[in-house]
Amino acid sequence: xxxxxxxxxxxxxxxxxxxxxxxxxxxxxxxxxxxxxxxxxxxxxxxxxxxxxxxxxxxxxxxxxxxxxxxxxxxxxxxxxxxxxxxxxxxxxxxxxxxxxxxxxxxxxxxxxxxxxxxxxxxxxxxxxxxxxxxxxxxxxxxxxxxxxxxxxxxxxxxxxxxxxxxxxxxxxxxxxxxxxxxxxxxxxxxxxxxxxxxxxxxxxxxxxxxxxxxxxxxxxxxxxxxxxxxxxxxxxxxxxxxxxxxxxxxxxxxxxxxxxxxxxxxxxxxxxxxxxxxxxxxxxxxxxxxxxxxxxxxxxxxxxxxxxxxxxxxxxxxxxxxxxxxxxxxxxxxxxxxxxxxxxxxxxxxxxxxxxxxxxxxxxxxxxxxxxxxxxxxxxxxxxxxxxxxxxxxxxxxxxxxxxxxxxxxxxxxxxxxxxxxxxxxxxxxxxxxxxxxxxxxxxxxxxxxxxxxxxxxxxxxxxxxxxxxxxxxxxxxxxxxxxxxxxxxxxxxxxxxxxxxxxxxxxxxxxxxxxxxxxxxxxxxxxxxxxxxxxxxxxxxxxxxxxxxxxxxxxxxxxxxxxxxx
Length: 568
Prior knowledge:
Elements: H1 24-32, H2 57-66, E1 72-73, H3 76-81, H4 88-96, E2 105-107, H5 112-125, E3 128-132, E4 150-154, E5 161-165, E6 170-174, H6 179-188, E7 191-192, H7 205-211, H8 218-221, H9 224-227, E8 228-235, E9 238-243, H10 255-258, E10 267-274, E11 276-277, E12 282-289, H11 292-304, E13 311-315, H12 317-327, H13 334-349, E14 358-365, H14 370-379, E15 383-386, H15 388-396, H16 400-409, E16 412-422, H17 423-443, E17 449-454, E18 461-471, H18 477-494, H19 513-532, H20 543-546, H21 551-562
Parallel strand pairs: 2-4, 3-4
Antiparallel strand pairs: 1-2, 5-6, 6-10, 7-11, 8-9, 8-10, 12-14, 12-15, 13-14, 13-17, 16-18, 17-18
Helix pairs in contact: 11-14, 17-18
């Protein structure tokens, strides 16, 4: 496998080059008021100095004896790759070389029995344990948050498709399998899970379940909780297997509590997932609306009339304009330039423009409703741009995380947040959130570019996925980000949005958990934690216990302790 980028996304052999996108940097300079001398390079890996592992030789030997050869690693590269997820805060600290709390060891179990043994060992020795899938968490979900000795349990060796039940159309799968490997094995048998999050290439089935991750196609295929029929979870109190079989379900089940538990209750070792036959026909195309509001109305009407696409993604005017700039890999010449110019003139003559319109990617698979969906969108003013843009989006949809590293190299803050709300509240929340982010960014001395898209839609509401960029406040990178994050999350909670849609909670969202669930709800969740994990071994310091008595207290704690190296 190609070496992973230790301070950013993906593998070191890939990037999101802007050299052949002629207008990209000019666009960003104008939008963010860049001076041109901004930079924020990563430190030299060889300069990193990690705390020595705190496990004794006897403990390391015991771990080796209970697993398999090569399963216990304490080398610097492995510990660095498991010290953080991939949130903006994580990447800033990695680039600075600030890793004060790396895991003391990383263990790679090959069987569920190995997982149980390591869990028992940790409980007996008062050692914290962090389950680790692909490490793509953007909310601090895999960061060591406890002063105790900490082991990270990487499930990469639990990567098999165990069985496919063609009659029930389910597959039993080990939790550590990554997205591409899972789809490759299912596709070979004619099936698909149909779950394609942006982190697809570097995230795992267990991670999707543990965070309630939503895939790009979740509108038609269902969110991960809808696809999960059963899970096996190893806890300090033993293994739990809980099922949700519609034909036989009765009473209550732990399943929906274990889904989304983010490793705080136990280690997901395998799951039985609902799969479906590979589609025989696919129709993906791009539509251009005159406004974001028109596109939102079209999506709502489709869902409420039973027209459910496999994929629908609607970019607001700012994101559409930015996508247009970044999608142009090079200036067109000759016949291609002539055709594009004629097409744009035709659009303008009809009242459409990428500079002020809203772009939708709409996809149907094996659906008799493709025509009905297109007709409805056109009735709301959509212009059909054909299949080309949609094919390009499908081809490149896993490339954009690499762009964040390129932008950070040039001193640009770039982050995302997401929420969901009901249809009647989408426009209000969208407007308030954009305004709040722009104002809070100005308060840090920068100008923001705020872009939003709707990526997951339901009969009663939709998600809002926001990307924001700004010039970094050098020397105050994390403090600048926290100011924006705090304001944006407060706005979401005050204006009827959910705390998260599929990013999870980790510890970065934990200060707002009491608002999301209420004091009684948090007490109930903590009681479950106490029953399954009485020694607080499982992923301590995350959402079940990090929601301190108030938001301000929790944020102050984070700033004073976990970010104490922020001010140099």
